[in-house]
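Kindly review both lines to help learners:
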Amino acid sequence: MQAWVEHEILHIGAEAEVTSGLFLGRKSVQKRRTERNWRHPDLDRRLCKSRMSAEARILIRLHKIGIQVPKLRQVNLEGRTMILSKLSGHPVIDLLRGKCETPDGDEWQKEMLSEIGIIVRKLHRNGVSHGDLSTNNIFWCPSNGASLLDFGLSRITEDIEHYGIDLHILHEILGASHPSIENAMQILLTGYQSIDIEGKKLIMTGGGVLPTCKQIIKRYEDIITRVRYADN
């Protein structure tokens, strides 16, 4: 039996091509990193292998913790491919733009935003910054909640700036692409803050101390101020 059977192209981006299909008979997604022709081929291969290895380690780490991310099924560093389980639900960008079926009324939007805040905080509590938290890279369904995908720019870090940037990306996208949702970022931040115990330090495996929820939100607010100042 052929291990991977391709069905259709889901997305073609600057970094990768994503297709749906079956892997050993199970619904899956294949992500293939594209060659960067402007780089020297040897450098491109080394960078691709390094980034794919880092992404695979983070996916395995998060899956073991219980955070909803795609399950890694196969990595082929030479072939530049990664096969992942298919997430339930739809991209948040499509849900908010009415491109797929949603529950009646508007309450589901608040529930979804709160659950996004919770899963992003779980990510940060475990020392991982996503790096590209657009509404394309978050899935949601009423029965299964929020899931995160595309960890190609993610990193394990103690640096508060990266966590603040994650929140700022969400702030910018919700404001620019989905302005009709009132207080969207505040609802998300309420969810983000809801799972922390005041005063409890979070220690990384290597012994470093992660920034607190309040510290990250303060840095996010500082980033907003810096961006506004730069724009003026």
User: Anything to note?
Assistant: The beta strands are 4-12, 16-23, 26-33, 72-76, 81-85, 90-91, 128-129, 138-141, 145-148, 155-156.
